Amino acid sequence: KPPYPYVELISYAINSHPSQKMALSEIYNWLLVHFPWFQTATSNWRNSVRHNLSLNKKFVRVPREAADGVGKGDLWTVE
Known about the structure:
79 residues; alpha+beta; three-stranded antiparallel sheet; 4 helices; 14% strand
């Protein structure tokens, strides 16, 4: 398991993106690529990511704009 709390992992993911914004699926993919533990873990970690995004005031939901590409759902950024 990664030695960082979910808040830090999510922050690392979002801050690594050139726009400093990511969709939930992009955050999942980033974690899977950078921390192989997630590839074999049960899917409960996805609930933890969503929980942290929703409840931690550090993360802000940003409406997706046409320039942000195709996809559904909002983007997330770090305040």
